[in-house]
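Case study 2.
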Amino acid sequence: MNNLKLAAAALALASLASGAFAQTQPAAGGAMEKCYGVAMAGHNDCKAGAGTTCAGTSKTDYQGNSWKNVPVGTCTTIKTPHGTGSLSPMAS
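Prediction:
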């Protein structure tokens, strides 16, 4: 009986975890777009303006010329302490 309860609990947790993961990840092959001003320092996806080369080189949180790939249509809804994300580079 205990094994059955344990298996049921494990299955329930696995289902919850996979559902939460699916909600945070774009669908396979989903279209992505560059979203400027939403990356945390050192977590941009690629070139972040003068003095940087590629991923992970942004110097400050929400740096206006650094970008992250986000699902199409979500960029301008991402809220930061400096406003919302932008589809084009902006002043930091």
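The CA atoms of residues 66 and 82 lie 14 Å apart.
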